[in-house]
Design goal:
Two copies of one chain form a homodimer. By secondary structure, chain A is of the alpha+beta class. Helix content of chain A is 39%, strand content 26%. The first copy, chain A, is built from four helices and six strands, in the order βααββββαβα. In chain A, strands 1-3-2 form a three-stranded antiparallel beta sheet. A three-stranded mixed beta sheet of chain A has the order 5-4-6. Chain A binds a DNA duplex through helix 2.
Chain lengths: 127, 127
DNA sequence: ATATCTGCAAAGTTTTTGCCGTTAC
DNA sequence: GTAACGGCAAAAACTTTGCAGATAT
């Protein structure tokens, strides 16, 4: 039961497990972790750690596709906002950097993430 | 006992705890976590999750300083390589993006990270 | 028949919480 | 005296592992 991770985005392993059980009620959480780990190692899925102790997963979009986006994280309440501003310019720089790093460190690179960290307006007022 | 996180970089909470105990043997791991959490919320320390289940911490350098760097992560063996290529160009783009995001989402942004994900040469050969 | 896949339960790790004594103002 | 800090032990949360049965080649 492998073909099901075309769901949404920012899903925790448990979210995915819940979805998966709806499709195949006999699936186990272990399998979800194993599959996710495999997928992230071959670059199909991007594992994201936002610092809340729970890993999130999303489809590893090709940076050329318009779904390509990055994240803005509130370090207090852990809210995650997706953004797509300046993605064109970002892509250019990232491709250049990726190329340089691939050569220099002999990595096969298949993805990248950008996180901005800050405090959202709600948390700033509450403090 | 707060003034001690001027150590090196990519330290796990436990690494820091071990260092801290050397300075003040009565300190507890809890305090390390509490202090680190506090520091990361005010932007003094950058909490980094590289996907190995253990959070790392490093001094949140001002992006203008030359210590500013980003990371290249092997998704297999979790090796982390620091890089500083194209940091000048990156900075320009990041500042522009940061400004746009601050306004649009009313965040107070104080840091950003860029991660490239791939497979290192060692792991590629072993597979 | 052999190798791979899977679920369950148990174990492991890392991080957080509750409680209470101590320190600071 | 009251509030903030800090440590210890216990708890919690997430993820991984061992094992045995099932599936596929």
């Amino acid at each position: 039961m492998n073909l099901l991770r075309n769901t949404e985005k920012h899903l925790s392993a448990e979210d995915i497990y819940i979805d998966a059980v709806r499709i195949n009620p006999s699936i186990g959480l272990t399998t979800v972790y194993r599959t996710l780990d495999l997928f992230s190692q071959i670059g199909v899925v991007q594992k994201c750690d936002f610092g809340d102790g729970r890993a999130r997963y999303e489809l590893a979009d090709n940076p050329l596709k318009k779904s390509h986006h990055h994240h803005l994280v509130c370090v207090k309440c852990k809210t995650i906002v997706d953004y797509t501003d300046f993605i064109g310019e970002e892509l250019e720089l990232m491709q250049k950097t990726e190329k340089a790093l691939s050569l220099k460190h002999r990595f096969k690179i298949f993805n990248h993430t950008i996180h901005f960290y800050g405090i959202c307006s709600k948390c700033r007022l509450e403090a």
